[in-house]
Amino acid sequence: MSSRSTESQIHQMLELQHNMNLKIHPQWFRQNYEWYRAIWVECAEMLDHFGWKWWKKQVPDTEQVMLELVDIFHFGLSSRIDGKTQFDQIARTLADELAAPQKADSFCATLEVLAGTAISHKVFDAQAFAGCMEQIELSFDQLYRAYIGKNTLNLFRQDHGYKTGSYIKVWHGHEDNEVLMDIIHKLDSDAADFAELVYQGLTKKYPGKA
Fold first, then answer.
1. What's the angle, vertex CA 102, arms to CA 108 and CA 154, rounded to 5?
2. I need a labelling partner for 140 at 20 to 30 A (CA). Which of 94, 121, 126, 146 fits?
3. Angle between helices 87-98 and 126-136 (to 10 degrees)
4. Dist CA 180 CA 189 (whole Å)
5. For the chain, which domains are there?
C-alpha cells in the first residue's frame, strides 16, 4: 500500500474520530478515557466471534471479526490523539507501524499480543493490530471503508440518543451493525458523499422517530 495514500487516509480517519469524540465531550482528550481498556475488552469479545473453544465446533464469523477490528481502530486512533501532536505526525507514525506487522503463530495468539500490550502498557499496539489484519485477510482499504461506515453509525447513534440510553440498537430483529453492513454493501464506497449516503440509509432503516 502507498505510504502517502495511507497517511492521507489515516489523517482523514483521525479527523473523523476527533469530531466523533467531540460529541461525547468538547475536551475529550483531557478526560483520560481508558481507551486501552476498550481495546482489550473488544479483543476478548472478538475471540468469541472467531472461535477458540476446542471442546465444540465453531465457525469463525469473519465479517464480525473484521467489524470488531474496525472498532478497535477507533479506540486506537483516539488513544493517539493528545491535543498537542499534529495529525500529520500521528498519521505518519501509524502508517509506518501498520506497514510493519508483527504476528504470532495464530490469529488468536496475535490478538492476545494486542490485548496484552493494551493491558500491560496501556497503549495501542498498531503492529500487532496490523498482524491481526493480515491473518484475517483484512486489507487497509477494507479497514478504511469499514471505518467510514462505522464512524457514520457512531455519529448516528449519538444523534439518536445513544448517550442518554434512548437509542434503539436492534432494528426489526437485526443489530444496527448488521444493518450497517447491508447498507454499505449496496453503496459505492468510492463516492465522495459515501458517509452521507450511509447516514441517509441508516435514517431510512431506523425504527425510532427520525
1. 65
2. 121
3. 50
4. 13
5. 1-136 (1.10.4010.10), 139-210 (no CATH)
